[in-house]
Structure formats: structure tokens, C-alpha cells
Design a protein that fits this description.
With 206 residues, this protein is α+β, with helices and mostly antiparallel strands. The protein has helices at residues 12-39, 68-76, 78-84, 171-179, 182-204; strands at 48-50, 57-64, 91-97, 104-110, 116-127, 131-138, 147-156, 159-167. The protein is built from 5 helices and 8 strands. α2 crosses α3.
Length: 206
Amino acid sequence: MERLVIPFKPRRKHWLTAHRRYREQSLDRLETCVKQIKEGEKIKDDLKYETPADKPILIMTRTFNAPRKLVWKALSEPEHLVRWWGPHGHKNRVIEFDWRVGGKWKIETKTAEGQVVVFFGEYREIVAPEKVTQTFSFDGLPEGAHSVDTVILEDRGNKTIYRATSILPDIASRDAMMASGMDVGVREGFERLDAMLVEFQAETVR
């Protein structure tokens, strides 16, 4: 009886087809992601402040076009935090970053003009990935003079609402901070954060 021999042929063509399809799908996801980010740029500067007349409180809200877990990553990991902290042109260096309740943090900021300012505080509450409360102060303020800042991240699917509430020693301190030009640093810092979140999202779809 004659034996039937069927030659083996590597399925290279099928492998290439599958690989090409996967690559095209990845590029499609990346393109969709970038498109969504660009479409969301219109809400990029929806930063709002609330300053109750009878309380030494400042409430700040801002929308980010990224899932909450990515915004939390940018807030909670020092190598990312220093990249967006403060205005454009500022360079930051982590001196201390003990991410736990009772842990202390300290960041040195160098302005484009060469001025150096050290910010510092202590973590009082951490609830990943939605809430962190910390004290906030900087060199030059009297000892014990600080605000207590609570950031809450509200999950809105592909967007995140950032809500920060700062409690200051008194209303005069709150109003002085608002009049100091802090808005420029906050807005530009958030613009830097926007750019980082674009990077994060692009990496997740590759």
C-alpha cells in the first residue's frame, strides 16, 4: 500500500497576516486615543476656584482627559510628580518622599531665573486611588504655618475630576495666596500634567 506523504509547509503567511492585523489594531487604538485626547483639549482649561467668604478655604477643580488610575500615578509616584510640579521652566528635585500616612515629603524647585524654593509637608491620609490629604508649606513661612490640602479624584471613566480643598490658617492668608499669582503656576503645572497623561495613555495602547 502506497503511503501518502503530505509535505509540511510553515504557516508563515498566516503568522504575518495575524501580526499585521494586530499591529493595525494597535495603531487604530493609538489613533483613537490621540483623537479623544485632542477632542478633549477644549475642556483642558476648565480650572475653577471657589473661595467661601466666611471660611479660610480654597476649593479648586479641574478636569483631566485620562482615567483616574493614571492621574493617581502622576500624583503618587515621585519620578512623575516632579515632572509636572509648578510652572513651565521650573526644574524639580525630590529630597524626601515617604508615601504613607505620617510620612514626610520635600521637593526642591528651581525657577528659570535660578531661585530655589523648598516645599514640604506630611501625609495625613491616603486612600488609593481616590484621596490624599497632606500639609503644605515652604521655606520662609513661620514654623507651623501651613495649609491642609485634600485632593479627591472623581472617576468619570476616561476622564477624571480633580478636586483640591485647601484649609488655610485664616481668610487673610487664603486671600493673600490667591493674590500672589499662584494661578499661573497651577495652570501651567496642570498643562504639564496633561502632556504626561497623553504619554501614559499612548503607552497603554501600544
